[in-house]
């Protein structure tokens, strides 16, 4: 009698572990290749290919999920209520982030004791050109320009350019139109649902390439500025990271507590996404999976589909926190004392400029150039922190991800639609997985 021989089960390394290994290898390889700039052109394309694959499917996911969710809601008053509650919460929490950054900047004074002439300088010319272009206001006010630009003149052009605000506007309007035509809109909803399922299948396959992208990004980062650039600016790095940890644990922790959940529950279920966002310095890499997980965590699909894409423009808590600390850093480095009134003006200016330039590439540096110029401070000081901006960007991206994820719970709770039991069940299954 022939007995079947049982083949031993293969043990696979989990994706988060693969990403962590890639992260460590990237640091090690980048350290040993520091100064070998000619090799960057061979490594950088690997990271860019991965990032392009992610960006390729972000817009279809945002458009299809939002249009489908709004069509199921079908009520303009409900959608409007989602809108003002979302924007109000974003404005409050962003203001708190800017204020916290100013407090940390004053307490720890990261710019004191540094000689600008002895620090390595980066190139901010491309950011200055972007800032000059962004300052050319059609209506004399950046906020008004932003409001007008929300309505696209050509939706296909907006889709091609990846402009989220016009896409969100059209998707909401289109979703309401589908709901308004009743049964005639069902075939359209079926198509949107099918496209969404197909795109989510694609994202799960693309994420398997994450370790290669992470290795390339980290390796190039270390090769470019080297670990030696960290030493003179280590205090700034520690202050920014410390402020961001405080913001997540205390500020977002209190908000989560008010909503009846623990902020560490969100961090736990998003640990893979946070690691990926940190490594790539891009929130877009995790947008689809964050939307998927927050829906499983108990937030309704229509709220998740609306809040998270909107948050990518209006709720960049980590960026706001960093910008306020960096502005004070430059002032302190040049020995400029800012009075309480001037710091309040700085806070208000950052609130306006960050919203008015939400879609500008390299937003954080561009916003700072504009803000420092309006405050009479030397924008050239930003050239001194370009070297570690990538590391700071990695940190603020994580804060942005956690902040946007929590906002779905806040709006859901505000609407009395948050499913606490579903969230806890998902959390338990996630712990066992």
> Which class do the helix and strand fractions yield?
mainly alpha
Proportion of residues in extended strands: under 5%
The gross shape turns out to be globular
CATH homology superfamily name: Sodium:dicarboxylate symporter
Largest sheet: none
CATH class membership = Mainly Alpha
Mean pLDDT: 84
Give the distance, in angstroms, between the N- and C-terminal Cα atoms.
39 Å
Poorly predicted runs: none
Sequence of secondary-structure elements = HHHHHHHHHHHHHHHHHHH
Number of helices: 19
Q: How many strands?
A: 0
Number of domains: 1
CATH overall fold name? Proton glutamate symport protein
Instruction: Give me the CATH architecture, please.
Output: Orthogonal Bundle
Helical amount = over 70%
Task: From the alpha carbons, calculate the radius of gyration and give it in angstroms.
Answer: 23 Å
Q: Outline of this structure?
A:
The protein is mainly α and 433 residues long. It has helices at 15-32, 40-73, 76-108, 125-135, 142-149, 155-161, 164-180, 186-206, 210-225, 234-258, 263-269, 271-280, 287-296, 301-314, 317-333, 340-356, 363-374, 386-414, 420-432.
Q: Layout of helices and strands, plus pairs?
A:
Blueprint: H1 15-32, H2 40-73, H3 76-108, H4 125-135, H5 142-149, H6 155-161, H7 164-180, H8 186-206, H9 210-225, H10 234-258, H11 263-269, H12 271-280, H13 287-296, H14 301-314, H15 317-333, H16 340-356, H17 363-374, H18 386-414, H19 420-432
Helix pairs in contact: 1-9, 1-12, 2-7, 2-8, 2-9, 2-14, 3-10, 3-14, 3-15, 3-16, 3-18, 4-17, 5-16, 7-14, 10-15, 10-18, 12-18, 13-14, 13-18, 14-18, 15-16, 15-17, 15-18, 16-17
